[in-house]
Amino acid sequence: MPGRVGVERVLGRVALSAVTDRRTNALSGGMRRLLGVAQTMLGDPPVRVLDDPASGLDPGMSRYLGTVVERLTADSGAAVLLSTHDLQLVDRIVDTVVVVAHGKVDDDRLPAWSEFQELAGKYETEW
């Protein structure tokens, strides 16, 4: 169980130190997502799992969240398993793309920019 110092450290790393006196339900959606990222840092695990962390965020907060995840990965060396529909976030922060379609791995590669655009076009959903 992480101590208070560990909790304060991870909250500082995601820029939530100023809101430690607030209840979770009083935080904005973006702050809640950052809190979720902070939770994955407790105990310094070698792998962190983020399930669609930018879902429902405005573009500015989504970019900031991506920056936080990039920085944390670079600083800790931990692997991040990211599940998302946000292809812009994927393009910014991932090294390897694994596409799961109908419950099976459909594509697995280290994409260059042109390959990423090809993947995005192949899996993009029209609404």
Automatic annotation (TrEMBL):
Keyword Transport present in the record's keywords: the answer is yes
Question: Does the keyword Metal-binding feature in the UniProt annotation?
Answer: no
Sorted alphabetically, which Gene3D superfamilies does this protein's record hold?
A: P-loop containing nucleotide triphosphate hydrolases
UniProt keywords, alphabetically: Transport
InterPro entries in the record, alphabetically? ATPase_AAA_core (IPR003959), P-loop_NTPase (IPR027417)
**GO function term, MF aspect, one:** ATP hydrolysis activity
Q: Which Pfam families match?
A: AAA_21
Q: Where is the ATPase AAA-type core domain?
A: 27-91
Full protein name: ABC transporter
Q: What is the lineage of its organism?
A: Archaea, Methanobacteriati, Methanobacteriota, Stenosarchaea group, Halobacteria
